[in-house]
Amino acid sequence: MVEAPVMDLKEIxxxxxxxxxxxxVDWGTLLGAVREGKMIEWDTDIDLGTMSSxxxxxxxxxxxxxxxxxxxxxxxxxxxxNVVERCILFQRSGRPVNMALYNVKGxxxxxxxxxxxxxxxxxxxxxxxxxxxxKPLVSQKWKPFVKVVRRCLxxxxxxxxxxxxxVVWRAWRRSGIKIxxxxxxxxxxxxxxxxxxxxxxxxxPFDVEGYLEYHYGKDWKTxxxxxxxxxxxxxxxxxAKFMP
Length: 244
Description:
This protein is an alpha+beta fold.
């Protein structure tokens, strides 16, 4: 029996391929595909990447994915004047599917990542994760909060879960988050490679081992359960050091 997240990935692939969307497996999903030939056991989501020029096609896929049972959270939000952040997330089973949307600047591409900076933002993010995939990675101090929230959510009618998750997701993104940029050399995306993953062929960034080393360091082949993107990711740039 194929596990639910793999079925989610398969059906998203079918829709994206039909619409001619150029995308690739990215981040931890790419790491699992190349290093282990499967999704990383402790990873909590599925990562795909595309260029921001695909945004219109991706939005046009929403209605078809919703018919297949996916909950879709998406938003365009202006930050730092005219810089626009585009976010989209697909969720149906245990792991949401995140799309990284890259923009070009000179010899680099960039995307925006958000990190909670205060207690309210952290609580809203955990609530959002509980609504979307039920297994947030939290520190010991948050476990009593998670226990109470689980009980409350069990009383929520199933039909209210999707609209409520959208409200919470948008509230989190406005409640106190730190913005950083993920900056990657453009050469990794000027042409794409391929990899087999669960019997399906997916695109990957070019020079996939070099790309993984850029993100995860020279020891990327060694599994690290404690890896944190905001602390360990090699592509993070503060706004003071990079601005589109």
